[in-house]
Specification:
It is a single chain. The protein has helices spanning 31-50, 57-68, 74-81, 85-97, 119-140, 145-161, and strands at residues 101-106, 109-117. It has a domain at 42-141: Arc Repressor Mutant, subunit A (Orthogonal Bundle), CATH 1.10.10. It is mostly helical and 174 residues long. Helix content is 53%, strand content 9%. A two-stranded antiparallel sheet has the order 1-2. Helix 2 (57-68) crosses helix 5 (119-140).
Length: 174
């Protein structure tokens, strides 16, 4: 762990910095701080890009997974996305009430439901996918293919290592 001596904090009387300059050295190299700032920029652009669809990132992720895996149980979809069951149910309820997806009982397990997209849900995922590719391109142009590959690999390693520890894509932006 880095020592506090690496970036000494000036006492109020010692700090004579113009009002236009803020010192950031205690947070500028913190991974979580930088991830949160980058995520905020990306999520803001995502919201602007797909705003007309009135779909949040988590809802799009759910729709996408169902599109690629029709008939899977809701517990499987929730687990694959790291969404807690208590958060998944209202997310899916919203998608279902909009006519984008449906639950169907699993004949072999009366307690489980299989998830499917409606025709409208398929059309929405298809339309949104093109817009999301454009959204992603805005950020991918800032890095090489190798940098993108490295970034995704490291990010997946970070969240993958926590998957068994209850890390979850919660309802904060669901």
């Amino acid at each position: 762990m880095p020592s506090c001596r690496q970036s000494p904090m000036p006492k109020a009387a010692e700090a004579h910095i113009p009002d236009t300059t803020l010192r950031m050295s205690l947070i500028e190299d913190i991974l979580g701080y930088n991830l949160r700032r980058a995520a905020a920029v990306i999520l803001r652009d995502f919201a602007e890009t797909i705003g007309a669809y009135d779909i949040r990132p988590t809802q799009y992720a759910v729709l996408s997974l169902i599109a690629l895996n029709p008939g899977r149980k809701q517990t499987e979809i929730a687990e694959a996305l790291g969404i807690k069951r208590a958060n998944f149910v209202p997310i899916f309820d919203t998608l279902e009430s909009r006519g984008l997806a449906v639950r169907k009982p699993v004949p072999s397990d009366r307690r489980s439901y299989a998830l499917y997209l409606t025709d409208e849900g398929h059309a929405l995922v298809h339309d949104m996918r093109a817009r999301i590719v454009e959204h992603e391109a805005k950020f991918l142009t800032r890095m090489t293919d190798a940098e993108r590959g490295t970034m995704l690999s490291v990010l997946k390693r970070i969240w993958g290592d926590t998957a068994d520890q209850g890390a979850s894509w919660d309802a904060d932006e669901a």
